[in-house]
Amino acid sequence: MHDIEWKISEELVPYEEAISYMEQRVAEIRSGESRELVWLLEHPPLYTAGTSADSDDLIAPDRFPVHNAGRGGQYTYHGPGQRVVYVLLDLKKRKSDIRAFVQDLEDWTIDLLAQYQIKGEKRDGRVGVWVDRGHREDKIAAIGVRVRRWVSFHGISINVDPELAHYEGIVPCGIAEHGVTSLTDLGIPVSMEEVDMELLASFRKVFLENGVTGKITPSA
Fold it and tell me: Is this structure's pTM higher than 0.90?
């Protein structure tokens, strides 16, 4: 039976601290010393560059600290009001399929949004989750993962109520023709605590009820 730790950090977590923790935890998961982990947190305002980032997409390099993330993808923003979800799972216990894992992350986010009557959608060639607003499509969740010896880390960032103007310092995910949105921007004011409860319920449906036995244990 898979025993997955569910961890929520109440305070803002510095990015370097989060990366260091994930690096260590991935090694421990791989060796069997630690349980798999889903970690929910917020970061101070910053930009991250994925492995495909184009330096021309960093419009305001002095606005916030810029970190090389080591994950897939391009530039994105993290900051207060955004729920960052780091997903450290042993994919060998599941499908050993990175593409399927990314699709599961998208499905997880889409199921979450459906609880608020928001239709999240996938787009070919554009990883993440999008909302069709009629006159344009806006991104509400970014996805970027890294996999080491079949253990995943990094994950999802979902815009709950961040300062959307902070995205103006980058071309988010290298896509200039589309915008970004949030639950609050879509007229859904909701607390982070409520989002966390819905994330847990949706995680169970997508990851634990889809042919995989398991349980989730909260952090002590």
Answer: yes
**Contact (CB, 8 A) for 83 and 160:** yes
Residue 16 makes CB contacts below 8 A (sequence gap 6+) with: 67
Instruction: State the first-to-last Cα distance of the chain, in angstroms, to the nearest integer.
Output: 20
Using DSSP, state whether 166 is helix, strand or coil: helix
Active site residues: 173
Q: In whole angstroms, give the CA distance from residue 16 to residue 69.
A: 9
Cα(38)–Cα(57) distance, rounded to whole angstroms?
30
Question: pLDDT by residue (tens digit) across 44-63?
Answer: 999 999 888 899 999 999 99
Using DSSP's 3-state secondary structure scheme, residue 168 falls into helix
Measured CA to CA, the distance from residue 115 to residue 96 in angstroms comes to 29
How far is residue 155's CA from residue 174's CA, in Å, rounded to a whole number?
A: 18
pLDDT digits (tens, 9 = 90+) for 89-118: 999 988 789 999 999 999 999 999 999 999
Q: Is 30 helix (H, G, I), strand (E, B) or coil?
A: helix
